[in-house]
UniProtKB/TrEMBL annotation:
The keyword Plastid does not apply. The gene is phnC. This is Phosphonate ABC transporter ATP-binding protein. SMART domains: AAA. One of its GO terms (cellular component) is membrane. It comes from Levilactobacillus suantsaiihabitans. It comes from the Bacteria.
Length: 239
């Protein structure tokens, strides 16, 4: 069974802009899916409907075979815990340590009076170290976030989502502000999490070349519509 399924999904923003138009497709568990398309094509809208950051107007999205449209309260929290998200801006607390930033991923999803006050258990701290090992930054535990390169900061953001133990990672233009060298370290990290931990990864990218290098499958959006859906071998620069 697919981990994510879109059935006739439409998203019209309250100002009338069409975000998504009649989108239907399935994402198998463990796939590395890249979404390409020009700015404004609907990539970000698509990603944000998966964790209900945006509400759809009609149609149905199912995750692990359960429709998510009507989730609220605890079921919505559990859905969002299952789905890690990273953004073009890394959204780190710049003046705090890498460890603090990674631990904040725990607070968001497992809030207790202790974690809310910044008191973390030994287990949480060990989990933070393991998460940083997964992104090759275990040596930066006590470095201030704003002393890291952009690529390192994005990997801290990935480590922060690993504190949720996510089944799915959504990455919205994660390398748009990075140079080619650090872009590779971020994409390699996502690839490793996909291959070694079986996390389903969905990445929005501008670059078809980058998409071809990493994707199992590429889907293309134009004006909110799914205009192609190809296994990687069939995608050419002309697309
Ligand atoms: P929804 O229909 O999902 O509730 P809204 O139409 O209420 O979304 O818009 C959410 C926010 O995004 C608003 O603050 C709005 O000003 C802002 N917004 C409006 N147009 C755009 C746009 N073209 N791109 C990004 N954000 C926008
Ligand atoms: P992409 O990620 O491919 O650049 P988006 O999903 O951000 O595309 O945007 C798709 C369309 O929806 C664009 O026309 C954009 O201006 C519009 N849009 C995005 N967010 C909002 C919003 N909150 N309110 C109104 N329109 C929006």
């Amino acid at each position: 069974a697919p981990i994510i399924s879109f059935k006739g999904v439409n998203k019209i923003y309250s100002n009338g802009t069409v975000g998504l138009k009649d989108i239907s497709f399935d994402i198998p568990r463990g796939q590395f899916l890249v979404v390409v398309g020009l700015s404004g094509a609907g990539k970000s809208t698509l990603l944000r409907t998966i964790n209900r950051m945006h509400e759809i107007t009609s149609g149905e999205i199912t995750i692990e075979e359960e429709p998510i449209n009507d989730y609220k309260g605890q079921s919505l929290r559990l859905l969002r815990r299952k789905i890690g998200m990273i953004f073009q801006g890394f959204n780190l607390i710049n003046r705090s340590s890498v460890e603090r930033n990674v631990l904040s991923g725990r607070v968001s999803y497992y809030p207790t009076w202790k974690t809310l006050c910044g008191l973390f258990s030994k287990a949480d701290r060990e989990m933070a170290v393991r998460s940083l090992q997964r992104v090759n930054l275990a040596d930066k535990l006590y470095t201030r976030a704003d002393e890291l390169s952009g690529g390192q900061q994005q990997r801290v953001a990935i480590a922060r989502t690993l504190m949720q133990d996510p089944k799915i990672i959504l990455a919205d233009e994660p390398v748009a502000s990075l140079d080619p060298l650090t872009t590779a370290t971020v994409m390699d990290t996502l690839q490793r999490l996909n291959r070694e931990d079986g996390i389903t990864v969905i990445v929005n990218l501008h670059s078809v070349a980058l998409a071809r290098k990493y994707a199992d499958r590429i889907i293309g959006l134009r004006a909110g519509q799914l205009v192609y859906d190809q296994p990687i071998a069939a995608v050419t620069e002309a697309d």
